[in-house]
Structures are given as C-alpha cells and as structure tokens.
Amino acid sequence: MLDLARLQAIRLRPRPLFQRVVGTVFLMPSFYLPFRRTHIVLEGAEHLPRGGAILIMNHTDRYNYWPLQYKLWRLGLGFTATWVKGKYYEHPLLAWFMDATNNIPVPSKGYLLSKDFSALHRRLPDPTEYAALRRIADGHTVPEAEVPPAVRALLEAPCPDVPSGRYLDGLRARYAAMMRCVVALSRQALEMGLHLLIFPEGTRSRRLGRGRTGAAQMALYTRAPVVPVGCNGSDLCYPGDSPLSRGGVITYRIGAPMRADGELAPFQIPVPFEPFTPSAEPHQATFQRLTDLFMDRINALLDPPYQYDPDAPPDEPRGAERFL
C-alpha cells in the first residue's frame, strides 16, 4: 500500500532505464503491428522548453500518456515523471513497475479515508458512509444523527501518533507529510530536467472536465513553465484495459508555455506557502482561477469530441471504490 515510507523510498531518474526498455521492447513493436499500426502525431513540439516543465494534459483513457512519453523519447525531447493515483501501489508488482517508470504516486484524502475505513471494517464504505466521512474530514459539520455508526467508529479510533490522539488530527498530519514528500519529489523531477506530467482532471474522461488545483499549486510554488497538451484519439486506440493499441492516429497538440514572469504573473502568491498544507488554503480562489485557465488552454488544443461538454451535469460526489 501507499504510505509515507513508500513515498520516501521512491527514486527518480533523469533518464529512466525502464521507460526506455518499455518503449523499445513493448511500445515500439505494438505501434507497428500489421493491420493495427498506431501513428503518433506531435504538433507544436517547438513549444517544449529545454529542461523541466509542468505538462498538463487531458486524460481520456488508461494509457494516453504512454505514446506521448514514447514520442518525446524518440525525438530527444526529454523524459517524464507522472503523477499517478495511490491505488496503483496496492499491488507490489504494479508498484515496482510504477517506480521503475518514474511515476510519483499522489495520495488523496479520499484514498487515506477509504484505506483506514477498510482496515477497520474489512470492507469499503458505502456511498452514504463515504459522503459523511469525507464531509467531516473536510471540516464540515454533519449532524450527529446523520453520522453512520461505522463512520463514528473510525472517527473515535485512537491515534497515538499525534498529541491529541484523535483520528482526524492523525489523518491530517499523515496527509500533510505524504504530500510534502510528493512536492519534494516533483521539485526534484523538475530540477533533474524531467517534465512533470499532471492530469488536472484527476480522473479519466473522454470529454474535458473541471480541473483540480494541484497543478496550479505546483506551478506557483516551483515557478516552472507550464505547457498545455491536448490528447486526441488515444481513447480509440486504447478503448479498454488492454495496454496493446488497436491502432489508429493519436494527435498530441502542444501549446505555448505559460511562464511565471509572463502569463502566470498575475496569479503569483505574494507570501510563502506550501502546496496542499493549511498555508495554501487561503489562496484556493487563486488556484481555482489559474486551474480554469489551464483547462481552457487544454480545451483549445482538443478536437470537438474531446472538448468541454456544455450539457454535462455538475460533478457529483462518488464512492470510495475508485480509490482502491
């Protein structure tokens, strides 16, 4: 499972051997299979800065970053470190693969809550339990009568790792420590000259959805250039769980970089802050405005089937099954 010790054990590499091995042994042959050849088109490659940049891209399917990584490598445009979900570190073999290919697992509060609930009750919380647990963890008031017994049991579980002994204080301390490690790994990746690849939506969706603020926080904290990337057609090549492309055309459009002393200057935070900590909370409105700009830049690089859906309903809370 993903915990602080697991995060601290991650070692990034400026020229990750296993990315090259996977590209040579697996991706290259699969892209040139007879009757299912995959054509990878990279438009706007001249926009990629030399050295580390934050790449923000839509996430249409499980594998849409693999062809991009392959093309960047083959063209000599650098390697990546990619933010991935913590759930991919549940299985030791998959965790090893993720480490070897230069990924950075990002735990969410939902992941930690679901893991803790599952450890105590030997099952995942149902949608009602998860909704109540998440609201309480986010600082909202939930009437006592609306707190399910299984949630109350978790909240009352002792936590000897914090002075108060309260579960919620322990959760917040653990989350903060893990996210500090994520931030440190991300800075290290950029300093190595790696591109830090982030999917701002935080989940897969054929059509572009609302972005989360993690990329914005990292951009303002590191002052690294931010490069929007629009991915088109990958979902048709990877329609399911198979890592073998069915063939077709995948077009990546790379937009002009947004720099701290240019387009990002109006969003700069005038006081020190750490991403994903209480010091960042007063700036959430700024982070969201910048995130909206990021999503607009990605949207402009997408073909119509992948752009914003104006008729999409608002995001609805989802259950814990997506975390594990």
Low-confidence stretches: none
* SS field, number of helical segments: 11
Radius of gyration: 20 Å
Overall CATH class:
Alpha Beta
In terms of DSSP E residues, the strand content is: 5-15%
As laid out across the biggest beta sheet, the strand order is: 1-7-6-2-5-3-4
Mean pLDDT comes to: 94
Q: Kindly report the name of the CATH homologous superfamily.
A: Glycerol-3-phosphate (1)-acyltransferase
What string, H for helix and E for strand, traces the elements in order? HHEEHEHEHHHHEHEHEH
Shape: globular
Total strands: 7
Helix and strand composition category: alpha/beta
Portion in helices: 25-40%
Q: Any idea of the CATH topology?
A: Glycerol-3-phosphate (1)-acyltransferase
Assigned CATH architecture: 3-Layer(aba) Sandwich
What is the makeup of the main sheet? 7 strands, mixed
End-to-end distance, in Å?
Answer: 10 Å
Summed up, the domain count is 1
Explain the layout of strands and helices:
Blueprint lengths: L3 H5 L8 H15 L6 E6 L10 E4 L8 H9 L5 E6 L6 H9 L2 E4 L2 H13 L5 H11 L11 H7 L11 H25 L3 E4 L15 H9 L3 E7 L1 H4 L10 E7 L29 H16 L25
Parallel strand pairs: 1-7, 2-5, 2-6, 3-4, 3-5
Antiparallel strand pairs: 6-7
Helix pairs in contact: 2-3, 5-6, 9-11
